[in-house]
Each structure stands twice: as structure tokens, then as C-alpha cells.
């Protein structure tokens, strides 16, 4: 249940802010959003399977940081509505998943360091 709530909240925030701002969903935006949401779903499932005792807190922190850091990036990227070069598209295709992976590692490692290993 927590997995679906986290996934739906994140998806609603990403698609809602972009849709309200630009009133359209270009293919490039859909690809990047699907990548980020797929990584988020995989990360939440991985946390649920490996961190039984603290899954709720880690999933909550991960979703919160994703909403704070990546959703405003999606909301302000007008480049998705215009034609862009292949190099710029490749840069976006690398940057957003890499940012999520770094965020995932940071949240899990910091939670384990400050709350699990200190206890």
C-alpha cells in the first residue's frame, strides 16, 4: 500500500505540475517522467524488501526529497515543449535518472548512518 501511495503521489505531482503549466505532455517529457517514476518504483520496492524495520520512514523521506528536488525541475523545463538538439536531449536523459540515483543512495545511506547504526 505504501508503495502505491508513494508512486501515485509522485506521479501526480510530476504530471500535474507540468500539465498545469504547459497544458500538454510532449513525448520527451513522458519518456523522462517514466524513467524517473520507474526508478522511484524500483527504489521503493527495493527499500520495502531490504529495510523491513524502517521502510516507511525511508520511503517517506525519498518521496519527500523527490517532490522537493525534481518536481520543480520538471515544472520549469520549457525545453520539453520545443524542439531540442540530440545532445541536449541526451543530457536530460542522463541527468534526471542520475540525479534520482544519487538522491536514492544519499537518503538510504544517511538514514542508515544516523538512525540505524547509532541505535
Any key phrases for this structure?
119 residues; mainly alpha; 82% helix; 0% strand; elongated
Secondary structure category: mainly alpha
Biggest beta sheet summary:
none
User: How many helical elements?
Assistant: 5
Annotation, overall tally of beta strands:
0
Encode the helix/strand succession as letters.
HHHHH
Ranges where pLDDT stays below 50 over 5 or more residues in a row are: none
Question: What is the radius of gyration?
Answer: 15 Å
How far from one another are the termini? 28 Å
Proportion in helices: over 70%
Mean pLDDT, as a whole number?
A: 89
- β-sheet strand percentage: under 5%
What is the 3D shape? elongated
Provide a descriptive summary of the structure in words.
- This protein has about 120 residues and is mainly α.
- About 80% of the residues lie in helices and about 0% in strands.
- It is built from five helices and no strands.
- The radius of gyration is 15 Å and the shape is elongated.
- The mean pLDDT is about 90.
List the helices and strands and how they pair.
Blueprint: H1 2-22, H2 27-50, H3 55-69, H4 71-76, H5 86-116
Helix pairs in contact: 1-2, 1-3, 2-3, 2-5, 3-5
Compact overview of the structure:
This protein is mostly helical and 119 residues long. The chain has five helices and no strands. It has helices at 2-22, 27-50, 55-69, 71-76, 86-116.
